[in-house]
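Batch manifest, entry 17 of 40.
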Amino acid sequence: MQEIERKFLVNSPKFKKEAANSFQIAQGFLNTHAERTVRVRIKGNQGFLTIKGKSNESGTSRFEWETEISVAEATQLLQLCEKGIIEKIRYNIPLGNHIFEVDEFFGENEGLLVAEVELQHENEAFQKPDWLGEEVTGQTPYYNSQLSKKPYKTWHHE
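Output type: structure tokens
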């Protein structure tokens, strides 16, 4: 399956008032190779194993395969992950025909707020809420696989 999404920084906590729901997420990476990442995630009371391929040139599209696993299995696999478990709260915000997923990061990535919107095709138009900031689609430092290795606090300076 092809995943097409655009990624933005978030410039205001206003999005929280618009959220339909939110989930606590812990995730780690079994593999962070440039050609593929293998992610283990616990989201609320569900576990997932996800494989993502290399992004296209614009950074908007890549292969993604995901399957649900038990929380017990995900907990065990998190022990095998590369250093740098990511902790965040994901907020789902419906807007027009789309759902924005905003991640509020904690731990070594605290202070980072990133919104993603999944699209049907790369040039699809979508409404932009006023809390949406600079686009960071395709910017490697903002990939979760990279944030696990080089946390936000180590390279972002106000």
